[in-house]
Amino acid sequence: MAKAYSNDLRKRVIKSYESGISKEEILDIFIISLDTLNRWIRKYKETGSVEPYKRTKYRAKKFSDEALLEHVLKNPSATLEERAMFFSVKHQSV
To answer: Are residues 39 and 68 both part of a single domain?
Structure first.
């Protein structure tokens, strides 16, 4: 996965944009894409921040441990495949 741009760069880009420098000039000065610039501007307007979202090492679980335990207690004889179907996941995820 690509490394995130630094917060310092993001802040300098937004500061330049707010000072009235055109998008085309900003793209040339900072060597970023138009999509990146527009995403940073949108995020800044929505949240007041340009910091990147926190990256997690693992994907979010599709169901909680508590939900699995509850299903096991209610359906003690269910097979692994049945549990996977119940949670709409592959059996390796259960």
So the answer is: no
